[in-house]
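Hypothesis: this fold can be encoded by more than one sequence.
Test: take the structure tokens below, design a sequence, compare later.
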């Protein structure tokens, strides 16, 4: 008797599909280049921080080195997921799975799981040298254990949200190039939008404006005026919520160490992951596979 989960997707069928996915991932050169690249970046970050600490007495810490990778999760996920899953369309593998009797929901779930696993492996490759060398060289963490755990849990939930979105895009668009471009351009646009909003939030409410200047005495008269670039009131509350809610906003806040709502942000990420997955499955089940 087959094991089922509420009749929605079959565990055995998903496991069978996952074996095929991981077998293909094992021999995927681009994936291993990304893993080695992430490991090299982790090493570089640790030794760069250590050099700054020794030579300039900077405040570089293992915390900062650890969370730098969150800024790249969206970009890494966009590339690896869209290219890996896009090959299923271009090679005709996806169509063959359906012809041989695999259910679309099972195909989608297995694709999502392997996308998460591949992206997580690349992130883990970065974190390995950070934990192995960063802690002893940089003197451990500044944050307490609870905060470190919440940051890591939050970054994992963030990874799930990104992968769910990119899987939905890749499984809905049969053209690998279009899916890749859409995912990469999309994450870049939202990332820079969130960066802009964060900079706007840093604007002071009042600024000093030059009223007059006497070139003879070099006397400058200024007055304090309201900064037109300052975001206040309800708009400020909304922007703060957007940065906490959007995956790219979260990645920036985690990366620069200014995330404050460490309990809410993972919940937002999980909500996005569930919504993207549900929508992706519904569309994929009706899509005409070429």
């Amino acid at each position: 008797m087959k094991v089922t989960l509420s009749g929605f997707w079959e565990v055995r069928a998903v496991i069978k599909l996952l074996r095929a996915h991981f077998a293909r991932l094992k021999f995927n050169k681009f994936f291993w280049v990304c893993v080695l690249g992430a490991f090299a970046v982790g090493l570089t970050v640790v030794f760069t921080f250590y050099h700054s600490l020794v030579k300039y007495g900077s405040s570089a810490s293992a915390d900062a080195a650890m969370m730098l990778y969150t800024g790249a999760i969206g970009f890494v996920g966009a590339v690896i997921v869209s290219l890996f899953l896009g090959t299923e369309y271009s090679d005709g593998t996806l169509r063959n799975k359906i012809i041989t009797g695999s259910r679309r929901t099972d195909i989608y779930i297995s694709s999502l799981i392997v996308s998460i696993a591949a992206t997580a492996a690349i992130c883990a490759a970065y974190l390995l040298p950070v934990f192995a060398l960063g802690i002893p060289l940089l003197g451990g963490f500044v944050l307490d254990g609870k905060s470190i755990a919440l940051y890591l849990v939050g970054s994992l939930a963030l990874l799930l949200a990104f992968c769910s979105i990119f899987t939905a895009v890749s499984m809905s668009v049969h053209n690998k190039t279009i899916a890749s471009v859409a995912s990469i351009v999309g994450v870049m646009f939202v990332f820079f939008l969130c960066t802009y909003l964060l900079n706007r939030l840093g604007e002071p409410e009042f600024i000093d404006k030059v009223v007059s200047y006497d070139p003879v005495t070099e006397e400058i008269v200024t007055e304090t005026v309201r900064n037109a670039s300052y975001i206040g009131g309800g708009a400020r509350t909304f922007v703060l919520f957007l940065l906490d809610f959007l995956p790219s906003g979260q990645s920036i806040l985690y990366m620069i160490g200014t995330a404050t709502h460490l309990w809410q942000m993972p919940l937002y990420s999980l909500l996005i992951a569930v919504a993207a997955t549900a929508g992706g499955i519904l569309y994929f089940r009706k899509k005409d596979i070429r």
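The chain is about 75% helix and 5% strand. The two ends are 33 Å apart (CA to CA).
Hypothesis status: open.
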